[in-house]
Amino acid sequence: MRSMTGFGSMEVATRFARVRIEVTSVNKRGLEVLVYTPGGLARLERQIREEVAEAVSRGKVTVALELESSPSQNSRSLDLKKAEEYASQLRTAGKKLGVSAGPVWSDLLGLPGVVVNTQLMVMPAEDRKILGAVRVALKKMVESREREGVRMVGGLRVHLKKMEGIRKKMEAAAGQMRRKQAVRICARIQELAGEAGVVLEPERVVREVASAADRGDVTEELGRIRAHLAEAEELASTRAPGGRTLEFLIQELQREVNTVGSKSGDLGLTRFAIGFKSELEKLREQAANLE
Q1: pLDDT by residue (tens digit) across 144-156?
Q2: Could you say which of 2.30.30, 1.10.150, 3.10.450, 3.30.230 is the CATH number of the domain covering 6-72+120-146?
Q3: pTM
Q4: Domain ranges of the chain
Q5: C-alpha distances out from residue 47 to 95, 111, 129, Å
Q6: Alpha-carbon distances of 77 from 42, 80, 147, rounded to whole Å
């Protein structure tokens, strides 16, 4: 499984500019794609969204494109007409004020509008090159999610192993509880029958004891817990997205262990159930960041 946290970047040179692409990803229950492009590249947004949807299935993914001037492209130019207007005005003002020296370039260059930043452009013919760079950045982001996922899966297995150990203890405690419960119920029935002066048939006593024991039996719940843990362990061994399935299994495990705690009536079994839920909560926190 992969984490939902990742980063990837790429730069590509076009005729008039360099395009820098950054892709970041954080956890999100579904898939949310945010695309930030300069006005001249807004035409690529739909295709970028499609590329992201093919690469990942969950997470909040942000793709940002920035334009920078190419080393071969002069991003500034002089507005000579504007400079000439300023120079004419300064000469006229100099004559009126009796200043003989005319304007110099250092004066003109600092005036508004003389030095103009030329707009960075990317021609539509270069869209394919930019989309190729987007795919590379996405691939790097996915690879970083995979690396983080490997680390997280190691943590998942630690929690699953602890939960399996607690489950075995709950099974042992449940078996002891059934035996103790049967003895206690049988003794209580005999006591009540003696107080009432009633002689009960052994078969009826057995039925009553079995019925009472069934109401507190957690064998089925523990069996389902074992199956869910095995499926979660299998998910941890695959590279396919499984975060949503794991979240569903965690919900089912929560429901089953709650039932065990409420049905058992045994202090030891209840303590094991509390320990199980503690590990389950840690598992839930990690699953929230898995694709």
Answers
A1: 999 999 889 988 9
A2: 3.30.230
A3: 0.66
A4: 6-72+120-146, 76-117, 151-287
A5: 62, 43, 13
A6: 26, 9, 47
